[in-house]
Design a protein that fits this description.
With 253 residues, this protein is of the alpha+beta class. Helices cover 19% and strands 33% of the residues. It contains 4 helices and 15 strands. The strands form 4 sheets. The protein has a 6-stranded antiparallel sheet, with no helix packed on it. It has a 4-stranded antiparallel sheet with strand order 9-10-15-14, with helices on one face. The chain has a 3-stranded antiparallel sheet with strand order 11-12-13. It is globular and about 55 Å long.
Length: 253
């Protein structure tokens, strides 16, 4: 059954009601609609709780896609109660975790603006994200951090627009990723736009993002690694390099 993925139209929706449409043998739960993001495009799926009518809760360990992008499976932790098909539940996303992922994912988009090279890989995390670029040039991480924070501080709007699968096929050059193609088959593709009239960036992406760059907060490039002759891996972390050094216990004697 095709699920109504509410998060695609509202990244800030953290709770909703839904009806159980299927319960798999392994405990996976399908719903008629959901605000839980399913793992895709390098961004982890949401965790949280499903609340039953009697107030008991089903804790979720992950949210993932099923056979296709139109199937979303909510996977409970071990030994959690099983709901019945037809039961109405109230969904509660772990919002602090989701919001950190939204901030991080937006930061990855900002990095792709500064480093305008084809993207060969990416992974969004709560504490650290990475973006791999097809590049051989040497670049200073502090310089990249400064440019990132300039974009953050300018507080550009971040919003989405929709194009059809056919429009994407007719304009393949708008995709920055070298190895991963945007999800198609749902009839429409989300464009994540940064800046008024997409003045900063416009990129097909099905992930969740904040509504303005200032929400990203303090970030920095912690490391740039050489991963082959023409591949560089950028690691993005929250905070400043100084804060990170203090957390590690580094001292300047």
């Amino acid at each position: 059954m095709r699920v109504n993925a509410l998060y695609r139209d509202d990244f800030y929706l953290s709770t909703c009601e839904a009806v159980v449409t299927a319960v798999h043998d392994d405990g996976g739960i399908e719903l008629n609609q959901t605000c839980f993001y399913a793992t895709s495009g390098g961004q982890p799926g949401d965790t949280g709780q499903l609340e039953r009518a009697d107030g008991t809760k089903i804790a979720l360990g992950q949210t993932k896609h099923g056979a296709g992008k139109n199937v979303i499976i909510h996977v409970p932790l071990e030994n959690e109660p099983r709901p019945e098909v037809g039961e109405t539940l109230v969904l509660h996303v772990d919002w602090p975790r989701r919001y950190r992922l939204m901030r991080m994912h937006t930061a990855c988009h900002l990095l792709s603006v500064i480093c305008s090279y084809p993207i060969t890989g990416a992974a969004v995390g709560e504490e650290e994200s990475r973006v791999d670029f097809d590049m051989s040039e040497t670049i200073d991480k502090d310089e990249v951090t400064a440019k990132l924070m300039e974009l953050v501080g300018q507080n550009h709007p971040v919003y989405q627009q929709w194009i059809t699968d056919e429009e994407l096929a007719a304009n393949p050059d708008i995709v920055k990723s070298k190895n991963v193609r945007p999800p198609v088959g749902l009839g429409r593709v989300s464009l994540v736009c940064i800046g008024e009239n997409s003045s900063i960036d416009s990129q097909p992406c099905g992930g969740t993002h904040v509504s303005e760059t200032q929400e990203v907060g303090q970030i920095h490039i912690a490391k740039i690694e050489k991963k082959g002759k023409e591949n560089r891996r950028f690691r993005i972390r929250f905070g400043t390099p100084g804060e990170e050094a203090r957390q590690r216990g580094d001292h300047n004697d």
